[in-house]
Structure formats: C-alpha cells, structure tokens
Design brief:
This protein is mainly alpha-helical. It has nine helices and no strands.
Length: about 200
C-alpha cells in the first residue's frame, strides 16, 4: 500500500485506520522476511478494508499486488482471493465484462485447488454481475451453485450473502413471495451470525 498526503485521503474511522496501520505493518514485516505469501495475505486483507470503505482504486492496487505475490508463491487460494477482490471492485465500478472474466478466473483457480470459500465468493460475484446485466436466470444458477458450498463451509455470512442475492433476483423477476422468503432466510443467517 502506498501512502499519499493526508489531505487527499478521506478521513477514516479510527478503528478502520488502526486496522490499515496493522496491515501495513504486516506487509512491511513480510517484506523484511521475504515472505511473499504473508505479504499477499496482508495486502488482500487491506484491499478488503479499502473495498468496504469504497476506496476502489486503493483496493485494486492492493489486490493486484497480492495477486502478483500469490502467483510468485504459487498459492491458488490467495490468487483466487485477490481475483475475487478485483472482480468486486470492477463490479462496483460498473466494469461488468471485466468483472465476469475476473470472477471466472477466480472460480477456475478456486475449483482446481479445492478452495470452497474462493468458489463461493466467485459464484456470488458471477451471480451479482449477471443479475445487474439483466440475466436473472444465469444469476440464479450461480447462486444455486454457491449456496450448498456456503452451507458446507457452515459460514452464516456467506449463506446470508447468497440468500440475499437470490432474493434480489426474485424481486427483479417480480416473484415477491420467493423474494421475501430468500430475504428472510438471509436475515435469519445474518442474525445467527451476529448472535454467536
């Protein structure tokens, strides 16, 4: 991650800035140790923080660095994580054709390496992009592939994300009963996650 003048950057909440500082320290420590994989992991995490604060340019910078390092370390899981992050940034910037290609690359890598979390993230990304470009049936196919993986991982957050995506598609299709059912299931998962 590169540091720029404080005046050009938005003010982040203290806990977010503290997390970024922690991750930048982890990047420096990994660089000093010559550990490309640890550096890639820290950069992927920093990319996620930037993504969640809508700083897509910084997120892309970190994800691209992580991808290069993960390739050098021959770690498919971190490569898939970086590609999923890049795809999400592209999706948020309405670069749908690029996002579809990037999520497909992430899915291929994650599938070949048996990375269920990476597969689930890529399938959700493919579902989201297809829904936004007016291909709801294809979106549902991706979500239907993602849901059993999220359940196998026992990840309530991924299940909630997938169920919400399905709800949005059914809402778009004007199938409000199904939409409400999937929204409700997603909220149940999210509530379970928050209460545990």
């Amino acid at each position: 991650t590169t540091q720029k003048s404080a005046a050009a950057e938005p003010q982040l909440p203290a806990e977010v800035q503290a997390r970024l500082d922690e991750l930048q320290s982890a990047v420096r420590a990994a660089q000093a140790a010559g550990n490309a994989l640890a550096e890639a992991k820290a950069l992927n995490q920093a990319g996620e923080v930037y993504f969640r604060t809508s700083q897509y340019g910084k997120a892309l910078e970190d994800y691209n660095q992580a991808l290069t390092l993960a390739r050098a370390a021959k770690d498919a899981q971190e490569q898939a994580a970086a590609l999923n992050g890049i795809g999400n940034c592209q999706r948020k910037q309405s670069q749908n054709s690029k996002a579809l290609e990037t999520f497909q690359r992430a899915l291929d890598l994650a599938t070949a390496s048996g990375d269920l979390r990476g597969q689930t993230a890529a399938l959700n990304g493919l579902g989201w992009v297809n829904r936004s470009i007016g291909k709801p049936q294809i979106a549902l196919d991706f979500y239907n592939r993602a849901l059993p993986l999220a359940r196998k991982l026992q990840d309530e957050g991924l299940q909630a994300l997938t169920l919400r995506g399905m709800g949005v598609v059914y809402d778009d299709l004007n199938e409000l009963g199904k939409a409400l059912d999937f929204y409700g299931q997603g909220l149940d998962r999210k509530s379970t996650r928050l209460n545990s």
